[in-house]
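Data deposition worksheet. Section B asks for the primary sequence of the deposited chain exactly as it was used as input, without tags or linkers unless they were present during the calculation. Section C holds the resulting structure in token form. Section D is free text for depositor observations; keep each observation to a single sentence. Incomplete worksheets are returned to the depositor.
Section A, Depositor: J.P.
Section B:
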Amino acid sequence: MAVIRQDDFIQSIADSLQYISYYHPADFIKAVNAAYEAEESPAAKDAMAQILINSRMCAEGHRPICQDTGIVTVFLKVGMNVQWDAEMSVTDMVNEGVRQAYNNPDNVLRASILADPAGARKNTKDNTPAVIHYEIVAGDTVDVHIAAKGGGSENKSKMVMLNPSDSIVDWVLKTVPTMGAGWCPPGMLGLGIGGTAEKAMVLAKESLMDPIDIHELMKRGPNNRIEELRLELYDKVNALGIGAQGLGGLTTVVDIKIKDYPTHAASLPVAMIPNCAATRHAHFVLDGSGVADLPAPKLEDWPEIASGGGDGAKRVNLDTVTPEEVQTWQPGDTLLLSGTLLTGRDAAHKRMVDMIDKGEALPVDFKGKFIYYVGPVDPVRDEVVGPAGPTTSTRMDKFTGTMLAKTGLLGMVGKAERGPVAIQAIKDHKAVYLMAVGGAAYLVSKAIRKSRVVAFEELGMEAIHEFVVEDMPVTVAVDSAGTSVHNTAPKIWQAKIGKIPVESA
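Section C:
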């Protein structure tokens, strides 16, 4: 009989969350590096270079891989013979571990959890509560899989109730292109098949905890229908040509994970959840001997890549750039931004648009400026700002027309694609949308030389900051004519790969 001490359990939860904030799983690094070496699309290859460089920097600096440090998800398998030496409930112990991890002064993690989600949406300040899944099993250990799921990937989750005769492959291939690039490929797709609606979603989430082993499966061949599905989907999803960050390329997923469960004769529930380029999860087992052992990876596990971005890039002075210069930029161009860059996310945009509608003056002048969609991590030690990667830009689409029409804003910087409403507004106002790499937050933060809050300080990470940046790498994603690289590039690469016919719009 194992006796699990309260302090050991709490410390193990806290340590594991710190661990996964700055260490990618070694299998993911190996898989992305293999994809990087094989990639033929220059834009996608550069994006993966930035992801790999960022990952190594985070491992060395013990700072978050992504500014979105996620919602904590825990899968607990508690042995029936386990005895707890604890005064708190297991749920309370998990949440205390989360609290300690996210408030660690040496590596402060961003508090992203909002209570009263349909109402006040008030930040809980410590990223609690976690989402916990329990299973009582035979044995005398506590088995823990823990993950931090960012909103960009989590928000792209899909669920469908198919007819038993329907094709799962057809549904996946139809659905993945609708997810855009906000889930930050290259990553993994987790599928849950069977059970009931909620069981399928849990299976999909749980499948993403498994190691990346698709290449081993390819070598030995499938032993069952699930393994056949994994191989077929891996080949066909990559053949869609979406590529790293949606920029078009050979690799969109580094693995397909599937878990299944018996289901009702009339049903075929299928859930799909992506894991992004900031894949963060860990596994440990407590047997009563103390806190979890989480061995640090070796730096030689990361490839040596000299730089990501900058080759053939145009340097842009944000303080002097003109509308005429902006109109010369082409989709896919790499730019290095220097000068003053303002920030703003959902809450700030909502407040500004409300002020504009009421005829009130904004606290910040956006005329001729660029806005960066980011909610940075708080700085530690000698940092100007913590990890500051872009957030998913489509959430700002509904505000874009007003911002461009009423503020004189010249351009925007964010993550992944823009939707048709935003693209039309960009075209109408001859503005531009630039894309920074999701999954390279720490790398991006190193380009920020100064930072100060200039408006809406009470919004915390959603406040408007003024950054002074130097050589911040971005890609022209939507040019002033409204041409989107996320619309054009995947089709080009899908045609080059040639396994799936390109449908004309």
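Section D:
The mean pLDDT is 96.
The radius of gyration is 23 Å.
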